[in-house]
Structures are given as structure tokens and as C-alpha cells.
């Protein structure tokens, strides 16, 4: 081989080695200073407890060893997101006592919907804090904390307040839609609910657009889970007709509606990317993660996914988790099971900590997201 050929070959080898080195050396993680979350009970860390009656024991027992404002025995997916990003657990915006908002705030409340509902929380548990109100609360939070920070920035009080520049660097997370479907199942025909879906997803898109106008750039949007697999939907069903349930015992038609909703949400998110040129928007397929967990429960050594850990649910007698009631003139307490870690459903509506962790592990790595990026890279537009 001549010298010229040797130089060319050496140069080519160096280029290949540099390429392989860069491929093996991924981009550094995003440095999110804060998380701002909007959602329902799947991500509420104390909002509805602060606004109304506090969630009682045995909620929170598996991790916090006391009620912690969460509808689970322990942590929620949003808690595992905070852990992955090495940030503190989010404090609820509505729970201001002893709270630090330096690393974000949680505007989610149990029972929240995307589209405002014309009913009270005392009827069917629907929160008055729909997504539009959560956005109003965020606007007020941003304006007031920015003003207050300028007044106390040289004092220790500033450490509990967000820095103005962090709002544009934060991760904005969404987990809503389940309650819009549940209200629809209660009040509408499937055709009416289907017709309402574009407006519902447009209202979520409007919230993202508003936050973008306020400086937000990184968005992590969960779709809705397999609502037909929530045990509560089977509490009053006996001898279901053929085809009513799928092969895993879930209400087939309800899951089909959730899939249709998610399809429209994904399409709307795709359009948002074109409308918001500087935004990094990640669509997260929580449905597939949760349904995958439910369908593989036996192989994973878990309890029947339609069985409930906390509460008394025998035949048509139902005492909800943490409550007392009478069955055949005998007082019964809705207690926790002995080992919540083998249950998927905590209380018939909400997932156990173990299930939340499994879903978090299978979504935060990017395997079920569009674009397929881990949450640590969610600031990067693809």
C-alpha cells in the first residue's frame, strides 16, 4: 500500500472511530430545574386533599407510611418521574403549608377533567379544577412567585420559590382524559362521546399552546389508560353478555373508546409540533404500558389484575378503601391487603405503587414514546 493510500485509509478509520465513539456517547441529559404537572388523581400529590377532605389511611402506607395526598399505597408515576430527573417530589399548588416550589408545582387534582363538567365533586367525584382552571392557577402561580422572588431574592425565603428563568427550562407534564371518558360513559352514548373527542383533545392542545406562549418548551403528554380494566367497572356487573369482556376480563367497549381517544390525541400532538416550532413534545403511550402489565400479570407473579388490594368488595357489597360500613348488620372496614406489591389495582380505581413503578419504568426509557426518547432527553426536539 502506497503512502497516499495509507493516509486515506487511516483518515477513513479515524472517521469511523469518531462516529462510533459519538454513537456510544449519548447526549448529556436535559437539566430540568423543575416540573409543572397538570392532571387528575393519577398524578395528584395532595391537591384534592388540600381542597376538600384529606385522603386517609391506609393510603400512602407502602412508602410514606402515612397518607400523603396520593390515591395509592405509595408513589405515583409523577413521583417516579421526579426521581428519574433527580428532583424532589412535587408539592401540590393547593397545599401551601410548609411547601417549597423551587423545583416545580403540581396542579393536578383527583377527579379533574380536560373539559369542564357541569356537576359538583359531591355528586360523582368530579373536581372543580378542570384543566382550564389548572392553567389559570399556573398563570397566577408564575406571576405571583416571580414578583415575590424579586422582593426576597437576597433572603432565605427565595430558596422556596422558582427562579423566573426556570419556567422556560422546566418539563411540563400532562396526565388527563380518563375522567372525561368516565363522564362520557355515564352521560353520553358512545357516538356522542366519540363526537366530543376532537373538542376534548383540542382543549388539551390549547393548554399546551398557552404554556408555550408563557415560555414552556418541553412537554411530556400521557395518553389515557385502559379504563375498561379498572375493577370498579365490574363491581356491579354479573353474568356479562358474550363479547362484553375481552380476553383479560376488561370491558371491551370502554377500552376501544380509550384507544380511539388516544388516537385523536396522538394526531393532535403531531399537529402541535408543527404549530409550536420550538417545542419538544413527547407523546407517552401509557395505555400500552398498563395493558401490557395487566395482560402479563400472571407471568409476572402478580395477583389477578381485576382484584382489589384495599377495600371490601364481596358480591355487591362495597366498602371503599379506608372507609367503614355495614354488611349484614356487621361493621366492616375497607382494609388493605397484606402485600400490596403483588396487586395492580390499589382501590379499584387507582393503581398500586408497584404498578405505577412498572409503568414508569416502561415509559420513561422511551420505548413507548413518540418520538422514542427517554424522559431525560425530553428537552430535545426530534
How many helices does DSSP assign? 10
How much of the residues is beta strand, in percent?
Answer: 5-15%
The arrangement of helices and strands along the chain is HEHHEHHEHHEHEHEEEEHE
Mean pLDDT across residues:
93
Query: Tell me, what's the shape?
Result: globular
- Taking pLDDT < 50 over at least 5 consecutive residues as the criterion, the unreliable ranges are 1-11, 13-25
Sequence of strands across the biggest β-sheet? 2-1-3-4-5-10
Structural class: alpha/beta
Largest sheet: 6 strands, mixed
Distance between the termini: 44 Å
Tell me roughly what share of residues is in helical segments.
25-40%
Number of strands: 10
Oligomer: single chain
Q: Which value, in Å, is the CA radius of gyration?
A: 23 Å
Protein name: GDSL esterase/lipase
Organism: Salix suchowensis
InterPro entries: GDSL, SGNH_hydro_sf, SGNH_plant_lipase-like
Family: Belongs to the 'GDSL' lipolytic enzyme family.
